[in-house]
Every structure is written in structure tokens, then in C-alpha cells.
Design brief:
The chain has about 150 residues and is mainly alpha-helical. Helices cover about 85% and strands about 0% of the residues. The protein has one domain (about 5-154).
Length: about 150
């Protein structure tokens, strides 16, 4: 009871007025990181489609889809996504001094983990939706890949 009122007053006067602007500032790098994840997935599936249009080889298509499943663990390809979130380091330095925010690296690492998890979910969903189509007529496969990609991106 003794601490509640001063703590409430401190939060109301010193933190609450800044929460909206802080959230907006932090969401910029976070959003751009997740947009980059989406773009990477889109590019990788488009490459699979283009490769299939050239070769019409179902075995090669299966290999490419199998490689897509490893995308979330490919640090080279995921790096541009992670770099977008590293901008949080600068933004959080200001918060650290003003609001005593610590563990900045933890916030960045958790955000990058969520990005990897999102990519894992996207490729898993793609694989699950597309796998039955591997036995389909090769003329319809490219269209099916595109439809599955759009469904996953949605």
C-alpha cells in the first residue's frame, strides 16, 4: 500500500506518456525484419517455380522443396532479415538511459528467434500443403506451387 501510490504516479507521469511513441519507434525495425522474412520466402518459392518451368523435372522439384525446408536454418539467407532487427540496438540505447531498459541483446535475440520461427512455420505449411501435389500432373504443378505460396503468404 505504501509503494503502490508513488509507483502508480511515477508510471503515469514518467512512462505512460511515452509508451505509444516508443512502441512506434521499436516497431519500425521489427516490422521491416518480418517483411524481409516474407520477401525471402517469396523469392525462394519463385526460384523453385522458375526452376520447374525450365526443367519440368519432378525429382528436382522435390529436391528444391526439401531444400526450402532448411531455409530457416540457413544463416546466410536469413542474415538480411536479422540485420533489419539489429537497428533496435541503437533505438534501445536511448531507452536504456531514459527508462533503465536492460537486456537489449535479449530483446533483439528473441525477435530474431521469432523471425526464424515464422520462417519455419511458413516452409512447414508450404510443404504440408504442396506435398500431395508432387504426385499430380506436372502441367498443373507450377500453378499449384503459386497457389500454395500465396496461401502461405496470406
Amino acid at each position: 500500500a505504501t509503494v503502490s501510490e508513488p509507483a502508480q504516479k511515477c508510471c503515469t507521469e514518467n512512462i505512460q506518456p511515452f509508451l505509444t511513441s516508443i512502441l512506434e519507434e521499436l516497431m519500425g525495425p521489427v516490422s521491416s525484419g518480418f517483411i524481409e522474412v516474407r520477401s525471402l520466402f517469396d523469392r525462394e518459392v519463385n526460384e523453385i517455380i522458375q526452376d520447374f518451368h525450365k526443367s519440368h523435372d519432378m525429382m528436382k522439384l522435390k529436391e528444391n522443396v526439401d531444400q526450402l525446408v532448411n531455409l530457416p536454418f540457413n544463416s546466410v539467407k536469413m542474415e538480411p532479415c536479422y540485420l533489419k532487427v539489429n537497428l533496435l540496438q541503437e533505438l534501445l540505447q536511448d531507452l536504456k538511459s531514459r527508462f533503465k531498459v536492460y537486456h537489449i541483446d535479449f530483446v533483439i535475440q528473441r525477435t530474431q528467434n521469432f523471425m526464424q520461427e515464422l520462417m519455419e512455420n511458413a516452409v512447414y505449411t508450404f510443404e504440408q500443403l504442396f506435398s500431395p501435389s508432387l504426385q499430380a500432373d506436372s502441367a498443373k504443378v507450377a500453378t499449384t506451387i503459386e497457389k500454395v505460396k500465396l496461401r502461405v503468404l496470406k
